[in-house]
Write a structure and sequence with these properties.
Order of helices and strands: EEEHEEEHHHEHEHEEH
Radius of gyration: 18 Å
CATH superfamily of one domain: P-loop containing nucleotide triphosphate hydrolases
Helix content: 25-40%
Shape: globular
Number of strands: 10
Structural class: alpha/beta
Strand order of the largest sheet: 6-7-8-3-9-10
Largest sheet: 6 strands, mixed
Strand content: 25-35%
Number of helices: 7
CATH architecture of one domain: 3-Layer(aba) Sandwich
Length: 249
């Protein structure tokens, strides 16, 4: 029996109403599957609805039509089975790094697994900075703390909205490598939004390419390049070329 996908979009439309203006269709008939343990990137130009897709998957907004399922359950709102990492870090400035991560680790009873908190602080390289406040951290450190908080919640699916987009190239590549290590160890299901062809080719096992106005699925590019991957390898350059060819068609 074929295993159900971990995340499924089935003919999803999204229309936003505007006062005294015609409504705007942002997504049109979006359908795709993400299998358990897969790392999938959403790639496309501004206005193609990448972040809208992520927000729908997170249960933050409802689609105008179509269905979204996570672990075979209809997505009807946010849930602990899905964790979100935003580009803006979303850390509480009055809490230390450790206190921010503790928020993610609280169970439904309010209890905190402090061993788990310390584990993910160490995994993300933030343990030695655990008592610092967000204002004392660099952008890369803030994002590491945000990732640690999401991991501490132990979600089945991790949704990432251009988490490294605001970082310098050196820090971005370092965090990409760290994310790959975390994903390889945990095999969580990841849906990752990016506007970078190079980032998508390096991280993803599949790249979902979107076109804009309205956002529609344009192509799916499979990436079977084995890990560990080298950014300058002919294999990855070939994937980048395949993505760019699909963009032009």
């Amino acid at each position: 029996m074929e295993k159900a996908p971990k995340l499924r979009f089935d003919r999803v439309n999204m229309v936003f109403g505007r006062p005294n203006q015609p409504p705007v269709q942002v997504l049109k008939s979006i359908s795709f599957d993400v299998g358990e343990g897969e790392f999938v990137c959403l790639l496309g130009p501004s206005g193609c609805g990448k972040s809208t897709i992520l927000n729908i998957a997170a249960g933050l907004i409802e689609p105008s039509a179509g269905t979204v399922t996570a672990s075979s359950r209809i997505v009807a709102g946010p849930g602990r089975d899905r964790g979100v990492v935003f580009q803006e870090y979303a850390l509480f400035p009055w809490l230390t790094v450790r206190e921010n991560v503790v928020l993610g680790a609280k169970s439904g009873t309010g209890k905190v697994d402090r061993v788990k908190v310390d584990h993910f602080l160490k995994v993300t390289g933030m343990y030695e900075h655990r008592d610092k406040y967000p204002k004392e951290l660099s952008g890369g450190m803030k994002q590491r703390a945000a990732i640690a908080r999401t991991l501490a919640n132990d979600p089945e699916i991790i949704l990432m909205d251009e988490p490294f987009g605001a970082l310098d190239p050196y820090t971005r590549e370092a965090l990409q490598d760290q994310l790959v290590e975390i994903w390889s160890a945990s095999r969580k299901t990841v849906l990752f939004v990016t506007h970078s062809v190079e980032e998508a080719a390096y991280l993803a096992g599949a790249v979902i390419l979107l076109k804009a106005h309205p956002g529609e699925l344009k192509a799916v590019i499979k990436n079977d390049v084995a890990w560990p991957r080298e950014r300058a390898s002919e294999e990855l350059i070939g994937i980048e070329r395949a993505i760019r060819r699909a963009e032009r068609t």
